[in-house]
Amino acid sequence: MRLLIVEDEKRLAQSLARGLTAEGYAVDVVHDGREGLHRATEGTYDLLILDIMLPGLNGYRVCAALRAAGHDVPILMLTAKDGEYDEAEGLDTGADDYLTKPFSYVVLVARVKALLRRRGQAGGSPVHVLGDLRVDTAARRVHLRDTEVTLTAKEFAVLEHLALRPGEVVPKADILEHVWDFAYDGDPNIVEVYVSSLRRKLDPALIRTVRGAGYRLEAGR
User: Fold this and answer.
1) Which 8-state DSSP code applies to residue 165?
2) Rounded-to-integer distance, Cα 5 and Cα 97, Å
3) Measured distance CA(201)–CA(145) in Å, rounded
4) 165-220 pLDDT per residue, tens
5) How far apart, in Å, are the Cα atoms of 53 and each of 18, 121, 217?
6) How far, in Å, CA of 58 to CA of 93, rounded?
7) Residue 71 has pLDDT above 60, yes or no
8) Which strands, in side-by-side order, build the sheet including 169-170?
């Protein structure tokens, strides 16, 4: 899943990005409200972590603009303010949750997972069953023929992205964009490395390569 952090405290933003990347998320970071609004409007994100006190546009205005434009991406607001009025204002503009600085990183991760789980349940079951393969996106667990298969965070993220589009050809660039972050400038063949790893751990025939087009998760296997 892909997250956007809009936070002008650069050390905090980078720290959060490193931690959430280690959790298996693709994370983009911007430090300005206007850029955050542009990126959130143009990109495909599963969750937005939004500071309130931002240059350009504050978090309230970014949130209100996204909701007015019909974007339903979950928004977790961060702020140094701690008054009830501030929390109410944030939620009134359309935020889904609110966390006051300083906060525990463990609590932030729990809030992120809860919001993503809630969104998954609202949009349908978080469990994808494809023949003998069962991918639970909420619990982040994979079973093949009743045997649990242990995957790394990135392996799970690649499989999850394919499982959301069973039987469809998913371009390599699409996987790279959603599993790795916007700023990734490494070897795009990294996708092939993770697909090969998934084939070894699961079933070589489960993920088919469609030459020149991408990869397809075989829904009937």
Assistant:
1) S
2) 14
3) 13
4) 888 898 888 888 777 755 566 677 888 999 999 999 998 889 999 988 899 998 65
5) 22, 31, 43
6) 12
7) yes
8) 169-170, 214-217, 207-210
185-212 b/e (C-beta count within 10 Å ≥ 16 → b): eeeeebbeebbeebeebbbeebbeeeee
Using N-to-C axis directions, what is the helix angle for 105-122 and 10-22, rounded to 10°?
Answer: 60
Highest mean pLDDT among 28-37, 104-113, 129-138: 28-37
Backbone φ and ψ of 116, nearest 5°: -70, -40
Tokens describing residue 11: 């050390």
Give me the DSSP letters along 53-106: S-SSS-HHHHHHHHHHTT----EEEEES---HHHHHHHHHTT-SEEEESS--HH
pLDDT of residue 84: 46
Rounded distance between C-alpha atoms, residue 170 and residue 162, angstroms: 7
The amino acid occupying position 53 is M
